[in-house]
Specification:
Blueprint lengths: L19 H13 L5 E5 L7 H16 L4 E5 L3 H9 E5 L5 E5 L4 H5 L2 E5 L2 E6 L1 H6 L3 H8 L2
Parallel strand pairs: 1-2
Antiparallel strand pairs: 3-4, 5-6
Length: 145
């Protein structure tokens, strides 16, 4: 599981020796031990720098596209939603994982975005549909205000 989260070199490290992003990836590896069909990511990128946050998003995409594990990804970060909805993972001829733009269809069929407000669903659909809405609350949320 450490190999899946790109931490196989850290197997002998103590927890205190791991960065915050490494600790998050260890948590993901631990969640995968039982070979789950679904994994919940609850604000997994909160407090992380952008490159580390992208690494966490890439892990969710790898789970979805390569391991066929469904994920629920709870986030307030629209850039996470955009990445997960627009990229897909493939294994190249050398056995490495590559991330490619989805174009207009691939991730749109594999990713559903749901937006809640006060415990009620106010949107459910594709990311491009969310971005096209004129609802003032949703527009403010998307702009981060």
């Amino acid at each position: 599981m450490l190999r899946f989260v790109n931490l196989e070199d850290a197997i002998d490290k103590m927890p205190v020796e791991l960065s915050g992003g490494m600790r998050r990836r260890v948590g993901i590896a631990r969640a995968l031990i039982g070979d789950p069909n679904i994994v919940l990511f609850d604000e997994p990128t909160a407090g992380l720098d952008p490159p580390t946050a992208r690494t966490i998003c890439e892990l969710a995409v790898k789970l979805r596209d390569i391991e066929d594990v469904s994920t629920i990804f709870v986030t307030h970060e629209m850039n996470n939603v955009e990445f997960i909805s627009s990229e897909y993972a493939v294994i190249d001829p050398e056995g490495e994982v590559d991330f490619e733009p989805a174009g207009n269809t691939f991730c749109l069929t594999n990713t559903c975005v749901m937006m809640l407000r006060d415990g009620e669903i106010i949107f459910e659909g594709r990311e491009d549909e969310l971005m096209a809405l004129d609802d003032p609350y949703i527009r403010r949320f998307i702009r981060g205000r």
